[in-house]
């Protein structure tokens, strides 16, 4: 069958329609009529740009018949329930039954019964509850088993004890597609051990601007590398159609994401706008999808991002005309976490636009119930056509049937389910360790200092040396990868632990000093492990590629070691290439370890020789991303030859026998450091960060700008005094005399959009000390322009704190939103106002992610 036109209404004949008509589900005239917007989108599309793909999973008439039979028995309520996915923390099994919900997910940091340490058996038990609920037919329903999806994006990373592999950027540096297949297989098996059916992986983003906070989820800036991996990962996770492995008890559903162009947004902004031409959209961001579809991937997740200003979540031309019709995708398309809420005309509770554009399953994690009721009403009113709903349900049922779900027993009774021994099994960890070894990239090795002989005195330092959470990065046991301790990684090994084992076994001497140069035996060599702290999604977006080294701790360590004549090997933990010239200069050798995951021992395997001095493992990693010469080279891609001038080109990576001396590099980052504000941090070290300015005001019309020393408001109703917490003058004490109403405000001329942070559940945190409890009302507020603000009475919270002691208070940003703040227009991050006597000291104000420690809203 040959495709003639793109969509039914533009050319009156199309592949998908003919096909659907063949299985008797859809007639052309039943399709929703195009809106002007759809027509504009369709006009941007040239079908010749996109290939027709033959999936290796063919249409099977038995499956189609089975699906059609089920569909015919379903009520409209059951159909609407089928296309909704809820988060396990926001739905009970009883509700899943009542609403015939088609799917659940565990969002990052959501666990069965909220228990991070839940065992495989406990996960499988919850899966049983949902399974039983969904297959219940006591209400006369069809009883379709639900699918449980999870972000197993570098191993089954939401489960304590699982094998956590290097993040994709490190796997890209390993440049070994077949290793990907093994990793896919192991991940699938570990996910099966918890009783789940589907992983939201692989991410096929081809990242073109490394400022994006999800750069580490990408295998490479090079489309061909990502495409080569796509086939292997998909087959690793799902098995191969026609072979016994396909969706057997150790395989599960894979999910290519985020369709399409997520890695190419303008300025590398998360959920931003891709402005590529259509040809570039396919050539750069689409090739890996073609390969994944061919390999039989059954689920595709639509991207949060836009193409030329149109959000993918409601992009009919790309989702329906291109992906489903031209590329022949017959599985289902899921939207991303609440992504529909950002479509014009939609809210978290309702979005016919997304469904009509081609989203088959809506990820409405929290608001699923309202979404259900509203969608039902929209189907009744005809805003969503029954044919579209039937198509969506058919696709979901088809995938369920192909995955074997209809012929399964309850989750806990499936092979390996509930078997804790599968998680972090020694054979799995060995593959992860191999992946770590192969992902290491050597950027500098002056005087061939590496590999090191283990029979030496070795000093290990750096805050990344003995921290499995830090070495694993985001999407590790919590969404942001923060808040983890060693106890959370029973099957993990820190980089230091691996080094200690290698050195001790060989008869050497090792010491761990972490953040100061201290030792009992003068070291022959030091290994400094440092780099980025964990982040996920937009929390990792940057304005440039400067490596942020708080208070230059690591640079100072490097310099001190140098002063003592101790040679240093830097092991750099990072989710992307960063400008680190001063660190390269101060190290004899520099190894990029990316975010290696739980098997930190892989670093020592390579960095040290065997006890007899022979090479243990060679170093083979090669950059799959170009490395910048300045902090401003963020869109540095090897296939754009014009002006390509990296410090290290894509493909670079020294071998141990390369005799290469890296000369001193320029330490000019290309940016004026004084102009940089730290994102999400507003007040630190006693000073507001740019662009924020601290002012005080009382009844006098003149605000006083507070800069440097101690200040008073014009009528002396409020004082701002520099006080010490950790160091001199790192905090501000505000003293209200009670004379008249007075306030201190952190304002900016630039408007800040933190709506995304608010939607993502982030919080606003203040580190403060109550010096004298307010005698009456002390309010805090956030403002959003003329007459726009949200006030929260602070006194009740302060009353719970011990006077004279530092404490951290956090509120979800949504508290401010509920109090009236328009989060997209914040120009005053905090105002403290009182008319009464009071005194509090403030040390730090920032956006926080520790969702567990929130205060209730007033
Ligand atoms: C991310 C997806 C993820 C989903 C479910 C979203 O915020 O963009 O990659 O699969 O959440 O956790
Ligand atoms: C969830 C993640 C999700 C994110 C999206 C978080 O609260 O835990 O799974 O990707 O929100 O904003």
Rg, nearest Å: 28 Å
The percentage helix is: 25-40%
Structural class: alpha/beta
How many beta-strand runs? 31
pLDDT < 50 stretches: 1-31
What amount of the residues lies in strands?
A: 15-25%
> What oligomeric state is this?
single chain
Question: What order do the helices and strands come in, and which of them pair?
Answer:
Blueprint: H1 8-11, H2 15-22, H3 36-43, H4 61-73, H5 76-82, E1 84-87, H6 93-98, E2 103-106, H7 120-135, E3 147-150, H8 168-174, H9 177-193, E4 198-199, H10 223-238, E5 255-259, E6 273-274, H11 278-294, E7 299-302, E8 306-307, E9 310-311, H12 316-326, E10 332-334, H13 352-357, E11 362-363, H14 368-381, H15 386-402, H16 426-439, E12 441-445, E13 457-461, H17 468-472, H18 495-506, E14 509-514, E15 525-531, H19 553-563, E16 568-573, H20 581-585, E17 589-594, H21 601-607, E18 681-684, E19 687-688, E20 693-697, E21 704-705, E22 711-712, E23 718-723, E24 731-736, E25 742-752, H22 755-759, E26 763-772, E27 778-783, E28 789-793, H23 795-798, E29 806-812, H24 813-818, E30 826-834, E31 838-848
Parallel strand pairs: 1-2, 1-11, 2-3, 3-4, 5-7, 6-8, 7-10, 13-14, 13-15, 15-16, 16-17
Antiparallel strand pairs: 8-9, 12-17, 18-19, 18-31, 20-21, 20-25, 22-23, 23-24, 24-31, 25-30, 26-29, 26-31, 27-28, 27-30
Helix pairs in contact: 3-12, 4-15, 5-14, 8-16, 9-10, 9-16, 10-11, 16-21, 18-21
Bound molecules: beta-D-glucopyranose (2 copies).
One beta-D-glucopyranose binds next to loops.
């Amino acid at each position: 069958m040959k495709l003639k036109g793109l969509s039914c209404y533009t050319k009156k004949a199309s592949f998908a329609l003919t096909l659907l008509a063949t299985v008797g589900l859809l007639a052309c005239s039943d399709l929703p009529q195009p809106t002007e917007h759809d027509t504009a989108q369709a006009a941007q599309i040239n079908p010749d740009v996109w290939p027709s793909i033959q999936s290796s999973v063919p249409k099977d008439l038995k499956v189609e018949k089975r699906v059609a039979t089920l569909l015919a028995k379903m009520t409209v309520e059951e159909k609407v329930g089928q296309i909704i996915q809820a988060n396990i923390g926001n739905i009970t099994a009883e509700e899943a039954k009542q609403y015939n919900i088609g799917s659940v997910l565990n969002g990052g940091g959501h666990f069965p019964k909220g228990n991070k340490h839940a065992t495989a058996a406990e996960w499988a038990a919850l899966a049983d509850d949902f399974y039983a609920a969904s297959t219940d037919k006591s209400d006369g329903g069809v009883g379709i088993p639900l699918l449980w999806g999870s972000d197993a994006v570098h191993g089954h990373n939401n489960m304590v004890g699982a094998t956590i592999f290097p993040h994709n950027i490190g796997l890209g540096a390993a440049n070994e597609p077949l290793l990907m297949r093994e990793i896919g297989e192991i991940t699938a098996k570990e996910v099966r051990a918890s009783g789940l059916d589907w992983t939201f992986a692989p991410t096929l983003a081809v990242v073109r601007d490394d400022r994006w906070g999800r750069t580490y989820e990408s295998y490479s800036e090079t489309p061909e590398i990502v495409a080569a991996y796509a086939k292997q990962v998909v087959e690793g996770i799902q098995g191969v159609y026609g072979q016994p492995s396909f969706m057997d008890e150790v395989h599960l559903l894979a999910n290519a994401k985020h369709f399409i162009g997520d890695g190419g947004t303008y300025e590398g902004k998360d959920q931003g706008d891709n402005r590529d031409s259509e040809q570039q959209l396919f050539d750069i961001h689409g090739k890996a999808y073609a390969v994944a579809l061919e390999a039989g991937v059954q689920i595709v997740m639509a991207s949060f991002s836009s193409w030329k200003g149109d959000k993918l979540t409601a992009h009919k031309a790309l989702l329906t005309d291109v992906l489903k019709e031209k590329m022949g995708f017959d599985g289902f398309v899921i939207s991303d976490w609440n992504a529909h809420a950002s479509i014009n005309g939609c809210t978290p509770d309702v979005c016919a636009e997304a469904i009509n554009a081609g989203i088959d399953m809506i990820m409405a994690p929290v608001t699923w119930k309202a979404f259900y009721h509203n969608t039902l009403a929209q189907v009744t009113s005809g805003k969503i056509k029954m044919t579209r709903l039937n198509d969506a349900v058919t696709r979901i049922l088809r995938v369920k049937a192909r995955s074997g779900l209809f012929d399964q027993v309850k989750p806990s009774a499936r092979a390996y389910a509930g078997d804790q021994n599968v998680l972090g099994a020694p054979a799995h960890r060995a593959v992860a360790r191999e992946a770590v070894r192969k992902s290491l990239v050597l950027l500098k090795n002056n005087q061939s200092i590496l590999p090191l002989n283990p029979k030496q005195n070795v000093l290990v330092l750096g805050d990344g040396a003995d921290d499995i959470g830090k070495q694993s990065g985001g999407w590790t046991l919590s969404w942001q990868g923060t808040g983890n301790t060693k106890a959370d990684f029973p099957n993990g090994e820190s980089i230091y632990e691996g080094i200690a084992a290698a050195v001790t076994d060989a008869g050497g001497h090792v010491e761990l000093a972490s953040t100061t140069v201290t030792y009992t035996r003068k070291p022959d060599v030091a290994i400094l492990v440092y780099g980025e702290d964990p982040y996920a999604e937009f929390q990792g977006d940057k304005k440039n590629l400067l490596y942020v080294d708080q208070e230059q701790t690591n640079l100072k360590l490097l310099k001190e070691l140098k002063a003592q004549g101790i040679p240093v090997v830097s092991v750099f933990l990072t989710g992307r290439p960063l400008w680190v010239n001063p660190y390269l200069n101060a190290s004899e050798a520099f190894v990029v370890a990316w975010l290696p995951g739980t098997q930190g021992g892989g670093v020592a395997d390579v960095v040290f020789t065997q006890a007899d001095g022979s090479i243990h493992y060679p170093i083979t990693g090669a950059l799959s991303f170009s490395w910048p010469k300045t902090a401003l080279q963020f869109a540095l891609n090897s296939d754009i030859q014009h002006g390509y001038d990296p410090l290290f080109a894509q493909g670079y990576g020294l071998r141990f026998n390369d005799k290469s001396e890296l000369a001193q590099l320029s330490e000019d980052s290309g940016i004026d450091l004084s102009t940089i504000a730290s994102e999400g941090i507003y007040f630190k070290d006693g000073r507001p960060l740019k662009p924020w300015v601290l002012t005080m005001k009382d009844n006098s019309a003149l605000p006083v700008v507070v800069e440097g020393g101690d200040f008073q408001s014009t009528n002396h109703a409020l004082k701002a005094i520099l006080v010490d917490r950790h160091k001199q003058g790192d905090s501000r004490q505000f003293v209200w005399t009670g004379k008249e109403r007075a306030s201190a405000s952190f304002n900016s001329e630039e408007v800040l959009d933190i709506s995304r942070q608010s939607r993502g559940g982030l919080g606003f945190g203040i580190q403060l000390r109550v010096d004298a409890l307010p005698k009456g009302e002390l309010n805090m507020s956030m403002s959003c322009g003329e007459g726009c603000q949200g006030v929260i009475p602070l006194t009740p919270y302060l009353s719970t704190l011990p006077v004279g002691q530092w404490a951290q208070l956090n509120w979800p940003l949504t508290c401010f939103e509920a109090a009236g703040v328009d989060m997209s227009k914040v120009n005053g991050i905090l105002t403290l106002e009182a008319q009464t006597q009071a005194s509090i000291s403030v040390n730090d104000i920032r956006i926080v992610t520790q969702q567990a420690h929130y205060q209730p809203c007033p």
